[in-house]
Amino acid sequence: MPTLSPSVRKSASLIYHFAERESKARYKRSLLGWFWSFMNPLTTVLVYGFVFGVVYGAEAPPTSNGNAENFGLYLFTGLIVWSVFTGVVNGSMGWLIGVSDLRKKIYFPTETALLGGAAANAVQTLLEAVVLIAIMLVLANISWTLIFLFLALTFSMLFGLGVGFIVSVFNARYRDTQYLIGILLNVAFFGVPIVYTQKLLDDGGVDGFLRVVLDWNPPALFVEISRDAVYFLEVPQWNRLLAAAAWGIITFAVGWVYFRDQSMAISEEP
User: What residue ranges do the domains of the chain occupy?
Assistant: First the structure.
């Protein structure tokens, strides 16, 4: 039987180590531990659902069975995908800085620190997905289309890692990067259909180039695929699936190549 090479086994072991370290550090000295992985998204959804669904009276689109129309759930199906993207982008900068002293002492594939952090982030995202699926099960709004949720999460994480590889290099040299990225992500949040519906764009007469950008930017594609799969119980459009896959895979590959090219140089950064 074929066996993994020593270098592959070593990298896999390092990824597991960094994932374990990130998981332990995330809720260190916490009494409730991973319970907060359930509470954080639920609290966010409740707050957003109250503000937009109650205060502003936003109406959630009808679901497949007509029993799950809730603006909080509508938010959740998009927010879970957005969160994995931003979590990996922001986390990548911190994960690289977190091993800055170690990488000056010994050689190891530096990208394993980012991949390990992303793996820990994936575990938290899966817990959030469990919450979402459980709610949909209770409301009987569930279908085999659920598999596309995990595709959306995968594409979102790959895209986030690709961006994370690049921005973490810049942040290792210029610490202003993390603050700039934080601002850009806050602005970009409103370019993704999470707190508003497509109907709102239609009613507002948003069209032309701006509409193309709002409909086809990568996070928007990931969110719409997730929403089709879990909320509307529809098979996402094939062209959106292909575009999402292309954005995720190509961005990850470009980011990885750039990071590997710069890894030795950033090891010498103070």
Answer: 31-267
